[in-house]
Please model this.
Amino acid sequence: MQVVSKVNELREIRRTWQSAREVIAFVPTMGNLHQGHLKLVDEAKKSATKVVVSIFVNPLQFGPDEDLDAYPRTLEQDKQSLAALGVDVLFMPNAEDIYSRGLEQQTFVEVPGLSYMICGASRPGHFRGVATIVCKLFNMVQPNQAYFGEKDFQQLQVIKAMVTDLSMNLSIHGVATMREADGLAMSSRNHYLTPEQRKLAPSLYAIITKMTHEIESGRRDFTNMLTEAKAALIDNGLKPDYVEIRASNSLLQPGHEDTELVILAAAFLGKTRLIDNIQVKI
Ligand code: PAF
Model:
């Protein structure tokens, strides 16, 4: 595996691949890799001939009171895992190169609508930061395909919308959420949980799973369901941020014609904010 930090080096490698007609898959990450990330790499390897993974903790997507400095960094371990999987290039740019004119002056990409609702309402500017860095990384790597986890369901929709709106020439693939044995969605932020909080955390998934079964059995009083789910989160020791049932393609409130829904939830355990979602067909 080649480890590259400068975009010129990456472009040079990209040029040789281009002439050999390689199919390039890209997995952007912020590092602290877990099985969920490694599954993205596995999927990427299945359909491409070259795989690039990036590790970049993107300051632009963190709010002023969020965990940018504390975000877990496990570079050596990450490198070993990626090399063992046969990744071709690990791209690890530094923030000064990525945002060379400074964060204040940075041109940004904003996907309106989708970026302002649900997680975007709780984290103003977050999806602008995500869309901007993903657009920049796409311009640097120039992949044919890119892979994202469905755990960040709204992020995936924002990126798909950006690719459509800006006529970007690549395909976007969502990969199913990897879970711990007790159902908790794998996430780098799970490391922040104390042993007591870790025991409480799986109730987030359990509560939205129960909602899924109820919808599949015909329940449609969504307003009551959301109130019950928030109460259940509180009963289980979590502080709800939101619980929503939305149309899965638009993330808008579902109409009678919508048959593909997604239940999305976020809740705090102490300072740690957990998110999860389940797609449900009716
Ligand atoms: O999902 C993430 O890890 C990040 O939001 C991403 C897509 C790598 C952009 O920084």
